[in-house]
Amino acid sequence: MESQAQDSVRRLIVLSGIRPTGPLHLGNHLGAVRDWVDLTNRGEYDCYFFLANLHMLTTRSAALHTEGKKSGVDPKELYDDQVGLVLDLMAAGIDPNKALIYAQSTIPELTELMWLLATFTPVSRLEGMHHFKEKKGKLEEEGVGANAALLTYPVLMAADILGVQADIIPVGEDQNAHVEYARDMARAFNREYGDLFPVPDVWQTKALRVPSIDCSGKMGKSHPEGSVFYTDSEKVIRQKFSRAVKATANPPRTQSDWRNDPGDPATCNVFSFFDLVGSSEDKSWAEAGCRGATISCGECKARVAVLVNEIMAPIRERRLSLETDIGRAQAVEILHEGGKKARGRVQEIVTRAKEMVGIPAF
Question: What's the predicted TM-score (pTM) here?
């Protein structure tokens, strides 16, 4: 790790964020939140986990407003999603006494730092970001236009990282380019004005892609029928997997005569879950049974449902116990307290950055 401005006596800071666009699901858990819990419980790091509620607004349509129309986004629903996300994180095992949980919007100094970083950033680099091109393309397919915030998303993300002087960023592969941009911004600022920002490292385990149950791509909040959410009951999980699509290019084996219709696990969407939630014995059982036609697709789906429920049951129990007026009030208090602590740190760092640039507050 490059450590131009790192105080050798302080603990390393881990930072990651998640957009509060709906309830958390199995894909979020296996791909990110499970690792956050592990990093928090190690006791080796100062962990900062934030609600990316400013990033959340980047996919609003600019075209609707230029046409004199409203976005149709309900502010109360957005607020409830943010409170619900805190409860989800607590249910997953993140202890707010061990990690700082806060909302991005609590810290206006982040947008000041974003502006400073934007002055180092060529427009062409932002336009060439895969994230921008992908999201812009999807919005255009829906007949709506991308807003300027979507273009500058990586600059705000860099401010999120550098604003707390984060050292370690646990992200998925799709965010690597954004972390590399933040690394470049740290180097550029330090080179121009002097050492202030540590150059952050990516913390990454084996890349996980949790497929949608309905074979529509990656598991996501926009496809509830293909996702397993923290609050899904055991019955709902069984039902979702019983309707699971085996593969788009590989029809299910014959239900009435499956013993004479061997399958191919390599092309089966359901079988891929054994790598994510099962043991080697579970995977061997499913593979041998499918290829040898000794188990049906229904048996395989049922076994996956059991394995998924074993992971989700304790989270579901905790999440449902938190869904009370007291629990929601606690979530708001966590955001208030976490926001004050995180803002105190960011204020100090951004004040130093402004002074170094030559634009202090008068």
Answer: 0.90
- Percent pLDDT > 70 in the chain is 90
Question: How many whole angstroms separate alpha carbon 195 and alpha carbon 189?
Answer: 8
R_g (Cα) of the chain, nearest Å: 23
The β-bridge partners of 102 are: 50
- Give the pair of three-digit tokens for residue 120: 């180092």
Task: State the burial class of residue 201 (Cβ atoms within 10 Å of its Cβ: 0-12, 13-18, 19+).
Answer: middle
Per-residue tokens: 38: 């592990």
Sequence-distant (6+) residues with CB within 8 A of 355 are none
pLDDT digits (tens, 9 = 90+) for 91-150: 999 999 999 999 999 999 999 999 999 999 999 999 998 888 888 888 778 777 788 999
Phi/psi of residue 337, nearest 5 degrees = -70, -45
Domain ranges for the chain, please list them. 13-211+324-357, 232-319
Q: Which CATH number fits domain 232-319: 1.10.490.10, 3.30.470.20, 1.10.240.10, 3.40.50.1820?
A: 1.10.240.10
Query: Which residues are paired to 49 by β-bridges?
Result: 16, 101
Burial of residue 196 (number of CB atoms within 10 Å: 0-12, 13-18, 19+): middle
